[in-house]
Amino acid sequence: MTNTAPSTTDSTRAGRGADDDFTVELKAWLDRNWDPDLTVGEWWERLGTSGWGVPTWPTEWFGRGLSRSEGVRVGQTIVEYGALGAPGGLGLLLAGPTIIVHGTDEQKQRWLRDIVTGKQGWCQLFSEPGAGSDLAGLQSRAVQDGDEWVVNGQKVWTSGGQVADLGMLIARTDPDQPKHAGITYFVLDMHQPGVDVRPLKEMTGRALFNEVFLSDARVPDEAVLGGLGNGWKVANTTLMFERSGLGAGGGSGAVSAATPGTVMGDLDRRAGDFVGRGGRRSAGPETLFGTGARGLIKLAETAGRAGDPVLRQKLMQLHSLGEVARFNNLRLKAAMAAGRDIPGLPNIAKLSMSEIVRQSRDIGLEIVGAYGMLHAYSQDGRAELDRATGMPGLVTVTESALFAQGPPIYGGTDQIQRNIIGERVLGLPKEPGFDKSTPFKDLPKNG
For 153, what's the count of Cα atoms within 13 Å in the CB-facing half-sphere? Predict the structure, then answer.
């Protein structure tokens, strides 16, 4: 394949953490390459193939081999420069890293370039109405028909399904195997007949999630990722990346100003229109979660509450949680540089994020007081609410409060994270059961 991503330089390798060697190089590259009059597709082609779009990926696959914390700094540098950031979405956050781990060279060549350049958007087809926390209890079936697989079933809580070109699908291919063993991981074309995506409206007024009905949808055999029957192993890789990306200190890999893929039509629009005041955030709600204590401190100052000693203590506690998350990332970086790992850290990061979400919700509502009972469900309504209350940050607080119930559930509930830490990290005994050895078809099914 032709890959224009440069090899990591010695100065980048040795100077990670030394006076921003890689950010200096990045700024020089932006000086030469950023042009707001390019289309989004043209700009993402430059950014993605340069290695700066996903700098944490391997150098041979459009990356620069940087650590996660360094990757976050790259993204911040691009935004601060005034350029459009990387495509974002679940392609960069989940699909690409999973393909790098489990894909064949042919599969990497087929899908990775279109992910880093934003040409295709992705979604995750994992959870089902009766298989959420017990994901291995999924009942969607894939039956082989020649060199294709025919898929039937229902998925739910599918983020971005309405704008996705491809889906990460796990389906049961052998009901005679125990439930964890008879699952296969597929890459599904979302535009084919037999794929029905129905948005689910949330109490925030948005519809970030979907239910997806699969009726005789087809997947070619070459779109099996990780091998037949190995879907649970591959899915756990995806979930690991999900927990790391969603966890405290993980950045905001699922969010981008322009939407990748063919559905929204952003690829043909002017890149500069998505930067600064001309941009729009299309991948998620406006929340305080990504700002940590900073956004709430600013809100407290605006509301004249910054001198409240009890509130200041709560803000400091929130700031401390964010710092602990940052230090955990640095610990992981040091461990990996020494050829080691820190088992359970992605799960700990996910639990930390849940606590940060809850504290951000409670502190934000405490700052705005009775105004927190007001919320707007449309862009016009938000503007009117800002004018009526004189609090431009109010809609962010109320949307964060309404959305706060979601993060401790999606990506694996807090209870699931604690189970994983207990069983896989601490070695505590698992709950007794016979599902590991009984064929799935003989197990009692979830609701």
Answer: 24
The answer to the question of residue 159 being in a domain is yes
Burial 370-390 (b: 16+ CB within 10 A, else e): ebbeebbeeeeebeebeeeee
- Answer whether residue 316 is part of any domain: yes
| Average pLDDT of the residues in 204-225 | 94
**Does an H or E element contain 185, and which?**
strand 183-189
CATH of the domain at 335: 1.20.140
Question: For the chain, what is the mean pLDDT?
Answer: 87
Domain with 176, as residue range(s), is: 122-231
Phi, psi of 212 (to 5 degrees): -130, 125
Same structural domain for residues 134 and 199? Answer: yes
Give the SS3 label for residue 212: strand
Tell whether 113 is covered by a domain.
yes
Task: Classify each residue of 100-123 as buried b or exposed e, where b means 16 or more C-beta atoms within 10 Å of its C-beta.
Answer: bebbeeebbebbbbbbbbbbbbbb
φ/ψ of 174, rounded to 5, equals -150, 95
Known catalytic residue at 128? no
For 272-316, what is each residue's pLDDT tens digit? 999 864 333 333 455 666 567 888 998 899 889 999 999 999 999
For residue 22, give the CATH number of its domain. 1.10.540.10
Inside any domain, residue 421: no
Per-residue pLDDT band for 93 (boundaries 50, 70, 90) equals very high
> Rounded distance, CA 294 to CA 314, Å?
13
- CA–CA dist 264, 282 (Å, integer): 10
**CA distances for 343 relative to 6, 59, 427, angstroms:** 32, 25, 11
CB 440 within 8 A of CB 184: no
The token pair that represents 71 in the structure block: 């990757």
Residue 280's CB: how many other CB atoms inside 10 A? 12
Catalytically annotated residue among 70, 128, 211, 242: 242
The pTM for the full model equals: 0.80
C-alpha torsion angle, residues 38, 41, 46, 51 (rounded to 10): 140
Q: For residue 28, with 0-12 CB atoms within 10 Å meaning exposed, 13-18 middle and 19 or more buried, which class applies?
A: exposed
Interatomic CA distance for residues 447 and 445, integer angstroms? 7
The CATH number that applies at residue 130 is: 2.40.110.10
CB atoms within 10 A of CB 436: 11
